[in-house]
Amino acid sequence: MTTIKQIRENSPIILNISNMVTPQHVADAINFIGASPIMFDDIKEASDLVNISNALVINMGSSNDADVEKSIAAGKFANQKGIPVVIDPVAIGASKLRQDNFAKVAQEVKFDGVRGNAGELAFLADIEWNAQGIDAGNGDGDLHEIAETVAKKFDCIVLLSGVTDVISDGSKTVEVKNGHHYFAVNVGCGDMLDGILGACLAVDNSLDSAVLASSILSIAGEIAGGITDNLPYSFLSTVFNTLYQLTDEEITEFQKLG
Question: 60, 84, 89, 209: least surrounded by Cβ within 10 Å?
């Protein structure tokens, strides 16, 4: 089973195609758990950067033609090298452009992990859901069904993040019931989870690693929330401090699985 100690001992390099809003948060989250982030912008260095990396994380939150091209190029190189590829279909239901861009990448790149909220993943699963931009929105669909459907569709591990995270490989599904409501008011926490998921899969490409990724951020939030009551902005900096200090013993103590 993957541990945060293994991440710190191996310090995997996580290559990120980030959106314009959250690259610093993503880099910090990866760094504070003991992995090493690289932020990638120019397609001309795709091969070189993939060659030194242990996982690739693609965030489609602000994708344009150049982002799609570099996502495909880096994704293909990652597939050839055999390192995990994680993708986040940010607000995919909000516009046809986002849907078309995701479809272009999905046609060319094999994903190992898909991370999104209920609204985003419900769209990929063709299940009715009232998504609200980057927010999950509302729906009465079964979260397990959504996660399992997407996992089977792309033959990958899915991490559906929310009040309760649902992680599935299409045959086995696990819930992580930790977390804190301040995640919802700090933009970019899902993007941070993308990077943490990439780091965990880089150490061991498995469902257990995805469960660990969810647990790491959710438990850090639970601990931070207990320190920063009524201080939602301070909450995020405390999450980073907690990620840096978090131990496997604390994960075992706090983890609530279902």
Answer: 60
